[in-house]
Each structure stands twice: as C-alpha cells, then as structure tokens.
Amino acid sequence: MNELVESPFASRKEVAETAGARQDQSRELADLQVVYTMAERFPRDEVKAMDRILLAFTRPLLAEKSQYEYSRGGTEIRGASIKSLEAIAAAWGNIDAAWRERSRGVDARGIPYSEVEAVAVDLQTRTRKRISFIVPHWRDTRQGGYVLKDERDCYELCANQAQRRVRACLEAVIPSDVVEAAMQQADVTLKAKADTSPEAMAKMVDAFAPFGVTKEHIEKRIQRRLDAITPMQVVTLKRIYASLRDEMSEPSEWFDMGDDGAAQPADGDGAPPPKGKGGGTAAVKERIRTGTKKNAPTPAAKKAVATNASSKTDTPTVTYAEVADALNTATSADAANVAADMIRHVEDAQQRTELESLYRARMADFEENQS
Fold first, then answer.
1. How many CA atoms are closer than 13 Å to the CA of 315, on its beta-carbon side?
2. Which among 343, 301, 369, 363 is positioned nearest to 82, based on CA atoms?
3. If you write DSSP's letter for every residue of 260-274 in order, what string do you get?
4. Is the full-model pTM beyond 0.85?
5. Among candidates 155, 150, 230, 246, which has minimal Cα distance to 194?
6. I need a surface site. Which of 4, 211, 261, 282 has the fewest CB within 10 A?
C-alpha cells in the first residue's frame, strides 16, 4: 500500500481574527469613507483656495520661513520649506499628510530600527504619495556610536527624518504652480517688509562677522554700497545667513573671499560674549573667533599648503563633546543656533553629521514647546 507524503502546508493554521482587530479595521474603514465622502461632497474652490494661500504668505513671519536656499555648483538652489508646504496644504484643502511608525525590528547587526512611512493624499483627486524608509536606532560618536534606548530619542530621530519625506510627499500632490505662486508672494512680502535702515544693516554685518564675512565682502556681492542696498537683496542676504548658520554652505560659495583670508569678525579681541548666549557656548565661540584671527592664512601660506600638507597652520577646532553639550544645554532657539554655528569647526565629518541631527532635534523641541 502506497504511503502519502505529508503536505508541507497541512500544518498551517489560519490566524484567528480577534474582536479587537475587527473593530480597528472597521473604525479605520469608516474614517476613510467619511473623509473621502466629505471631500467629494465639498470639493475645493480653487480660486478661493489660491486667494487664501496668497493671503497667508502676506504674513512676514511665515514668509521668512517659507523657503530654504543654498549654493550647489555655482547655482543658487531654493525650495519651499516644510512650514510653507503645511500652510499651503491647509489652505488648498482636502489634503491629508502624516507619518507613522509601522513596525520595529532588529537588523543583522543587532541594531534596533523603525520602519517609518510618510504619506500625503489629495482626498478629492485620490492622488497619493507614499514613502517608506528605515531609521536605525543608532547614534555615532567618537567612541564608535551607541544604540538609542530612550524612547524620546528614538521618536525624535524618526520625526526629524520623517518631516523631510512628508515635505516631498506634499510637493508630489500639490500642483507645482500653486507652490511657485506662494513662493512669489513670499518674496513680495519680504521685499515690502525688508528693513534697509542703517541700524538694520549694521546688525546684518555683525551677524555675518562670525563667518569671516565683512562689509566689503557683502558690498562686493551686491555690487553697491551697503547704504544703497535694495529690499530684495536684504531678503537674499537673510537666506544666505540662514544657509551659513544651518551649515548648508560655506562663505566662499556666496562671497568672493579672495586671498585676503584676514576677514575677521567685527568684535575686538576683548569683546564680551553676545547677550543672551550661554557662558559655555559663548566662550567656545569666542575661542574660535580668536583662533581664526590669529591663524588667518596668507597667500604664501596657502601656496605652501597646496604643496606640502604637513605645513598646514593650526586651525581652530572644537571637540564633539563641547558642541553637543552646548546644544543640549541650550534654553532657546537662539542659543541652539549659536551652538550650531560651531559644528563646522568639528574635524570629523561623521561627528558633524550627528551634531546636525542633534541640532534639528533641539529645534524641533523648541517649535513643539511654542505650539
């Protein structure tokens, strides 16, 4: 008598569907039906929606945060920020955007990770953009890095990376001409509100000073004296400052630094720390400024560096621990910005990347507290 081989699928059992799972599925399905039905019943009036968007970007504070700008290969690149896209989505209507943590696991190296998904949906046109990505619960340090165990650290890491994907999703579902019109309105608002008074220009020169940018550098870029600056040029300089502050670019990408190398901060050697900054942060930053002035390379020194790497002059550096401590102890967004200015002086590129992530996490904390 022939014996039958046991089927490998015979031992499989259907997963029991619990009452809680069925209830969750029913609730989610009902929510989807409601939002899609309401979007179909109350479609957006594109004319009124566009008017709301343009009106929103007449507010100076929103206009100032509406765009980012950096230089790449000699070309100035600009784009809408996450704040501006959120404002556009709210005024455009019938747009749903969010991110969520789908699951957690452990990779082959034993490092925990989160599977995160960002999505934006136009409920009226049924247009959907979804981006899924993996976020390892890992933070690199000079000692080799460590696994994040605190739940808040894991959440902030996921949230920071998810916001950029949400921004990309919103750009995919909102018509590009709508976004461009909003950015044009933001430029008009900033142009009208730009302060070109001598006092404002003096503050701007002081703001650029820590980056080695002088009044002469600014005047050479705008091709005129500083007292004849136009409002749009003020807007451009503010964006350049934001790019330098956020470590998105270097001064040489925006200004003709030439071989003068002696571009020094406006502060004297004995100038007190700026008001409102923490003592530790201000002390480290002052050490950087002093070191920069003392070690400014001459043209001859630059030529020597090109021929012999060992002849480099000492460059003022800051340790990872100093910058991390300044960021962690910052009590305001301004203090965090001051600490972020020091990131570029950290030698190790991997440590600079980690410090930039820490800076974004701290800024997210301040924005959350303000809201």
1. 14
2. 363
3. T-----SS-TTPPPP
4. no
5. 230
6. 4
